[in-house]
Amino acid sequence: MAATETIRIPLGFPAPDFTLPDTVSGKILSLKDLRGEHATVIMFICNHCPYVKHVNSQLVQLAKDYQPKGIAFIAISSNDVEKYPQDGPELMKENALQEGYPFPYLYDETQEVAKAYHAACTPDFSIFDADLHCVYRGQLDDSRPKNDSISDGKDIRAALDAILNQQPVSAQQMPSLGCNIKWKQ
Question: Mean of the pLDDT values across residues 86-101?
Answer without folding.
Answer: 98
